Request: fold
Amino acid sequence: MKKIIYIITAVFFCMAGFVHGAEHQPLDELKVPMEKAISILKDPQYQKQKEAQREKIWEIVNQTFDFKAISMRTLAKNWKLFSDKQKEEFTSVFTELLKNTYIDKIQGEFHNEEIIFTGQDIISSTKARVNTKILREKIEIPMDYSMSLSNDKWMIYDVNIEGVSLVKNYRNQFKEILAKETPAQLIQRLKEKNEKHEQDRIKEQD
Amino acid sequence: MKKKIYIIVGTLTFVLFGIVLFPGLSFSSSEDDEYAAIMEELEEEDKGSETYSVSDPLYYWNKAMFHVNDKLYFWAMKPVASGYKTITPTIVRSGIKNFFYNLGTPVRFVSCLLQGKSEAAGTELGRFMINTTFGVLGFGDLSYLDPKLTPPPDEDFGQTLGIWGIGNGIYLVWPVLGPSTLRDSIGAFSDSFLSPVTYTEPLSVSAGITAFDQINSLSFRLGDYETLKGAALEPYEAFRNAYIQYRVQKIKD
Reply:
């Protein structure tokens, strides 16, 4: 009898520990996927298999970026204009746009850039900013990641390149577009952009 | 007694299942919570003094100039910079970059003083002395010798005016020079009096030196313009916003 209660209590404490006790450092949590992505970029095995490399990097990016939060933040007040279905659709096409742009960029132009982690600002128990520098040839490009803790994992919700926030930049564009067009039209424009990008990519590979 | 245990175990199992299933069941409401939290945070941000919008009464002129500069980039600057990059070793380009950076010391030094950043001004002066002499006219950067000589953030007169409380004024896109604002244009014009290149005679040589500096800098940044443009739905608006954000950040540090 007592044994069972002990076991149950122990299980409970374990679970509590699992949920609340884990104290991760955002910097460390970002470092792991970043280093993994760089090793994939450098891996000679992928030099001829760009598509496989792209998928591998995407897998990592997908686990590190909170695309839902990024979508909410870029639409801000306008998020409420979207129906539930449109919210989902927007998140998916906008994610696709970001994926296209940035994976192409790092895949196409990776020349042994180095990423230096310079520090982290813990803003609150669930918000932090990780500072990095990209070392390209002889120049340094400051790149900061805004991260938030959700479900016990630090996820990126904004990227700052030389002080320019990606989310704020898109928020400004979407605000101007939505002042004149409907959510459906914005989604349509994103879709068209993605399709064109896909065609260009296929053309380039041939 | 045994019955009691069953009840306890049963209840606990139920509770545990509830914990596991709960996030799944309440998916939509947790999304609403997340959204509410984000909006609260954004409103808090909006209350801050910095604003990222800029008035753009010269929209049509600016947009035309944006297209001119875009063509200039793809037809002239980019091919020249790419060719230059292929034939010039990194170490040479980096030396030239250092040389021009060193020439910019008077602008940064004076701006540091005007902003009351005496420590940064001291660093600028120290860097200038060491890099001009031991660094051979600034081609070498000896800041690695002493962490105290790490370059402080770039300052210019536009930022000084910003710190003095002068707003952006209107947004302006200059042919060749690119995005600016009324305040930053006045700043850049004032700064030009502190640049040795301005006093080079004749004017064509002075312009040539400036162009060379631009091409050399661009050789390190090839591809970045294309990425930002390619990522945008509204490229003109994207660059305008990026410029304003960039300057706000510069004024802050």
About this structure: The two ends of chain A are 71 Å apart (CA to CA).
